[in-house]
Amino acid sequence: MPRSSPVVVGYDGSGRALSALKWAAREAGDRGLPLRVVRAIPYAAVLEAAPGLAPGHRTTHEDKVLDEGIRVANMLLDPDQVSGVSIPGHPAGVLADASAHAALVVVGQRAQDGPVSSAVGSTSLVLADRAPCPVAVARGALAPERSLLPVVVGVTEDEGSRAALDFAAETAELRDVPLTIVSAWSLPPTREWARSSPDFDTVAQVARHLKARAAAVAEASKIYVHRHHPAVATRTEVEPLDAATALEIASHRAGLLVVGATGGRGPGSGGRSGDAGRTRLPGRGQVAQAVLGRAACPVVVVVPVRTATADEAGASSHEVDTDATGSAPTNV
């Protein structure tokens, strides 16, 4: 994405949207990017204010909510960095369209508690599943001093890209804070590991195997960061927990939590013949969806880059990890 691509923030005048707007403005300022305030207006409200307006057209009537959002953004950034637009439609669809040309899309949280469907809301979930750029949910502690805490990133053996690891390392470098790399493992149900792992006779053997794999992924990720982001101080945590729980716990001591929008294929997530703890999850990532509703700090969900060809994948894997585990570190 070009450096001129904006940070896009959804704004509807609510308290959560105001918090997201302020957080997004700080991110835009730190990254040297413009900020675009996007106001999605339900069609019923648009037609009441401007009868006959075709769906998909920008509104031309006065939008006091958008004006207020721009006013707040102008207090935090150079006005030349700030733009805004009102667009008819559902917020999820409007922001998904805006994400095609964005460096980052930011939305606010709906609530702190409850299941993910109500805690985050459909807009956040749709964006995390559809947006081609990173999606930030500004939830939890949002005070500016929170950004002085480490950036936390979850890593697994999942296929895909190193996009989340790169985003997390770049953010840690921008903020001049450490990067905590979390790799989690948990035992699958007894029947699953017995069926998928005939080489192991006891639960203890399976546990040692999964722990070693998780540790190898964490170490490979650390080596990758040191190679590509040498200024970033890193530490690794290998947790005997499911990934969502491990990341939720880590979020309480983090300024930002970064996860990859891929299916889970980390140790202990399931099983298939001859490969303990490997299975793909539907959609962009059940772990990402879970932490969106449970994290104590802002969360960024990062999509992988395009799938490499077989030749490219082989070359990339050899370049990154032959000195560590032999397989590329990838993300939750």
User: So what's the CATH class of the largest domain?
Assistant: Alpha Beta
**Whole-Å distance between the termini?**
22 Å
Order of secondary-structure elements: EHEHHEHEHHEEHEHHEHEEEHEHE
What is the tally of helical segments? 12
Helix percent reads: 25-40%
Largest sheet: 11 strands, mixed
List how many beta strands DSSP finds: 13
Which characteristics define this entry?
alpha/beta; Rossmann fold; 11-stranded mixed β-sheet; 12 helices; 18% strand
SSE layout and pairing:
Elements: E1 7-10, H1 15-31, E2 35-41, H2 43-49, H3 64-76, E3 82-88, H4 91-98, E4 104-108, H5 116-119, H6 122-130, E5 135-138, E6 151-156, H7 163-175, E7 179-184, H8 190-196, H9 203-228, E8 234-239, H10 243-251, E9 256-260, E10 271-272, E11 275-276, H11 286-292, E12 299-302, H12 310-321, E13 330-331
Parallel strand pairs: 1-2, 1-4, 2-3, 4-5, 6-7, 6-9, 7-8, 9-12
Antiparallel strand pairs: 5-12, 6-13, 10-11
Helix pairs in contact: 1-3, 4-6, 10-11
Describe the structure in your own words.
It is a single chain. By secondary structure, the protein is α/β, with parallel strands linked by helices. It folds into two domains: 7-138, HUPs (Rossmann fold, 3-Layer(aba) Sandwich); 144-331, Rossmann fold, CATH 3.40.50. 40% of the residues lie in helices and 18% in strands. The chain has helices at residues 15-31, 43-49, 64-76, 91-98, 116-119, 122-130, 163-175, 190-196, 203-228, 243-251, 286-292, 310-321; strands at 7-10, 35-41, 82-88, 104-108, 135-138, 151-156, 179-184, 234-239, 256-260, 271-272, 275-276, 299-302, 330-331. The strands form two sheets. Strands 1, 2, 3, 4, 5, 6, 7, 8, 9, 12 and 13 form an eleven-stranded mixed sheet that branches. The chain has a two-stranded antiparallel sheet with strand order 10-11. Helix 1 (15-31) crosses helix 3 and helix 4 runs parallel beside helix 6 (122-130). It is elongated and about 65 Å long. The two termini are 22 Å apart.
